[in-house]
Amino acid sequence: MRRRDGVTVAVFVSIFALLAIALAPFVWNVLTSFKDKGEYFTYPPVFVPSSFDLEHYVRGMHLGGAKGIKDSFIIASLTTLLAIALGSLAAYSLSRFRIGGDNFAFWILSVRMMPPIASVLPLFLFFRFLRWLDTYQALIFTYALVNIPFAVWMMKGFFDELPVELEEAALIDGCGRLGAFVRVALPLVAPGLVATALFCFMFSWNEFLFALILGRSRVVPITVNIAGLIGGHEILWAEISAVSIVASIPIIVLAILLQRYLVRGLTLGAVKG
């Protein structure tokens, strides 16, 4: 009994230690967002700021943080909807009709593995020809190209777990193939759909390279806005920390609200191939 208690205590201590290590950068970022300029340049460092006002948060929002969050939310939301709509249809066809053979799904996923720098120049020339540079549609289209292969791979695993007999019963009852997909298959893989959507949203929210190259002044996602706070003569550390904390709130809130579906989705055989 004592040995079992000792093992339990050791496990909990290890968990709390790892949690403290993981949360330390986030806590330091929060504290830095409240520090004055003299406090985050001192040595030894000041851990607790002298005041906890929202001056740096307000300034960070006025320096483009508010617009960056709005632009990122619009782009990430529409990208997620597009990736889920097209990805779920493609994944269903791969799962049920074996289009392209057994290795076609992995080939689709390999597109996601391509380095972004390899495709940013052709996309830049393409969007310049269409006069889409510095527009929402350019970034939405680009992010969808990146996220759809991931959505197809994730959703195919979920559809593979569903018994085909359920859809066959719907077909016998008079549903068409599209009706069986919408009324039977999609509701049953809803947890996986939510998990895939959350990951696509996170990828789009955190993306930097495409946003930097394809955006200019009218469309400035939050990642580019935060990088823009690093000037040639001054680095606004407190404002960078404040804006990054605000930018992390939507992802944290979504993860908390969708936690139940996320856990169920990730345990539904999403990566089974």
In words, what does this structure look like?
The chain is built from twelve helices and no strands. It has 273 residues and is mainly α. The chain is globular.
Shape: globular
Count of helix runs: 12
Helix-strand sequence: HHHHHHHHHHHH
Give Rg in angstroms: 23 Å
Assign the structural class, choosing from mainly alpha, mainly beta, alpha/beta, alpha+beta, or little secondary structure: mainly alpha
Percent helix among the residues? over 70%
The CATH top-level class label: Mainly Alpha
The CATH superfamily appears as MetI-like
Straight-line N-to-C gap? 43 Å
Return the average pLDDT rounded to an integer: 88
Low-pLDDT sequence parts: none
Number of strands: 0
Q: What profile does the largest beta sheet have? A: none
CATH architecture: Orthogonal Bundle
CATH topology tier name:
MetI-like fold
Beta-strand percentage range: under 5%
Features:
transmembrane helix, MetI-like fold, 273 residues, BP-dep_ABC_trans_perm, mainly alpha
Overview in brief:
The chain has a single domain, classed as Orthogonal Bundle (MetI-like fold). It contains 12 helices and no strands.
Write the layout of secondary structure elements.
Layout: H1 2-32, H2 55-97, H3 104-112, H4 117-130, H5 136-161, H6 164-172, H7 177-188, H8 190-206, H9 209-214, H10 222-228, H11 237-257, H12 259-266
